[in-house]
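hey can u check if this looks right to u? its 238 residues, i copy pasted from the old doc so theres a chance i mangled smth
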Amino acid sequence: MTNSNMVAHRGLKALRDWGKKLSFGFVLAVGLALPMMVQDAYAASSKIYDQNQRRWVAYTPERARQFFMRHKQTPETFRRQIVKFRTAEKPGTIIIDSVRHYLYYVLPDKRAIRYGIGVGREGFGWTGIVKVGRKQKWPRWIPPKEMVERDPKLAEFADGMPGGPDNPLGARALYLFEGKRDTLYRIHGTSEPWSIGLNISSGCIRMHNDDVTDLFGRVEIGAKVIVLFQGASLLKGV
């Protein structure tokens, strides 16, 4: 570990230790003033309760596909629902807990709408504070140059894929900006609804098409989006 990394590690540990002594809302308001686009070293997988085994098991892509084929929907924990939620952030804010695979849309009266999400696979996670810079129905998908380099088969879509049911961005997309700069990260629908609850994307936040359509209708341009760092997602109150 380099000196700079040691300093960053100690600083983050101190922030987490300090945050545990405070209410969750205050940590959201103050403790998340972190640099944008910090790569997340954590790749914790979700767990679901297996009624047959009577224990919690890792929610793997294989289990996800099997569950969706059997039930035609995701496990209940990843379905849209209103939950109690304490935060100092104002209603209309989006808070993303990548570790637990939840997106919260803050409502008044200490409540939020919780949606299940799919997040970045190992090496593609990130944390930070951004805003919704643009919204699009049935968005056109243009794979980034780096993605095409990783998978040459995507070269045929270098000029874009028209929006539609088979488009990877699904029914709706919220484009995330840092200031006036497009981060290239999105909150979007998916043509693979079984993937909700998994670490599977290249950094974007994917949602079931029905859920992203619901969120799309609620969110305003300029809305704050907070992607929690791993320690914050474990604080009491989430």
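The CA atoms of residues 172 and 214 lie 10 Å apart.
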